Amino acid sequence: MLPTGYGIRPLAVEDAPALAAAYSRNREHLAPWDPRRTGEFFTEAAQRKDAEAKLESAALGLQHPWLLVHGDEVVGRVNLNNVVRGVFQSASLGYWVDHRHTGRGLATAAVGCALRRAVELGLHRVEAGTLVGNVASRAVLRRCGFEQYGVASDYLFIAGAWQDHLLFQRILHDRPAGAAAP
């Protein structure tokens, strides 16, 4: 459950100005956990283009992007990415919270919302990777029922270097592949 005054809703192209403001405001906060970004990334035009691409992918069922909001302000994101159907029935999870809004349970609530949606979609498994030093993210994942299942060396190029990640998963059900949620 999100704290009072906060909401979660699907991404829209019209969110580009608010996203540009959120990423600009959190540039330093997110830098250790994100790929290096050019100045263009923080513009409304780049955020509009990114939103359009994400929504095209969402229309194909390949991802589900949401925003965390506080009033009209974007204060974070949560996404189910790389949705794979067939015998895998899986997705990858990504999320972040604005530095001015951390410590309020928003990440845990957002991940919980994404997991509920994953169950509705009939997914069997959600995975997440986190940098070895990201203690806060590990805590969120564990609170949401994820278990660590491995370490991936040089997994992603983050903050200008190949970084090791801890790999987590949450098994959502044991129904046969493609079976609808109850």
Automatic annotation (TrEMBL):
Gene3D superfamilies hit by this protein: 3.40.630.30
One Pfam entry name: Acetyltransf_3
Q: Name one GO cellular component term.
A: ribosome
Domain of life per record? Bacteria
Q: Provide this UniProt record's keywords sorted from A to Z.
A: Acyltransferase, Ribonucleoprotein, Ribosomal protein, Transferase
Q: Does the keyword Acyltransferase apply?
A: yes
Q: Which residues form the N-acetyltransferase domain?
A: 6-169
Q: What's this protein's family per the entry?
A: Belongs to the acetyltransferase family. RimJ subfamily.
Q: What is this protein called?
A: Ribosomal protein S5-alanine N-acetyltransferase
| Species the sequence originates in | Nocardioides koreensis
